[in-house]
């Protein structure tokens, strides 16, 4: 395997792990928000969803390059 292919595979794996972790965080915070619908929790959900969307876009871009 060439070094550039290995680097791309590592980048893809990192993107997948980041996406999975952030999506898990969004789900956890959404669950907490359903138990206590405070404004602070709503702000956290918005931030985490934004981050998850960003990571998903990065992941799709890397996948399309491969």
Strand proportion: under 5%
Could you estimate the helical fraction of the residues in percent? over 70%
Question: What is the helix tally?
Answer: 2
Distance between the amino and carboxyl termini? 14 Å
Shape: elongated
Mean pLDDT: 76
Task: Label the structural class.
Answer: mainly alpha
Radius of gyration: 15 Å
> Secondary-structure element sequence?
HH
- Which segments are poorly predicted (pLDDT under 50) over 5 or more consecutive residues? none
Describe it for me?
Helix 1 (3-35) runs antiparallel to helix 2 (39-65). The chain has helices at 3-35, 39-65. The protein starts with a helix and ends with a helix. The chain has 66 residues and is mainly alpha-helical. The protein has two helices and no strands. The radius of gyration is 15 Å and the shape is elongated. It is 91% helix and 0% strand.
Keyphrases for this structure?
91% helix; mainly alpha; 2 helices; elongated; 66 residues
């Amino acid at each position: 395997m060439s070094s550039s292919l290995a680097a791309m595979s590592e980048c893809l794996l990192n993107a997948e792990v980041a996406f999975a972790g952030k999506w898990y965080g969004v789900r956890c915070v959404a669950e907490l928000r359903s138990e206590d619908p405070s404004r602070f929790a709503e702000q956290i959900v918005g931030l985490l969803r934004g981050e998850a969307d960003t990571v998903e876009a990065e992941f799709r871009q890397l996948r399309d390059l491969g």
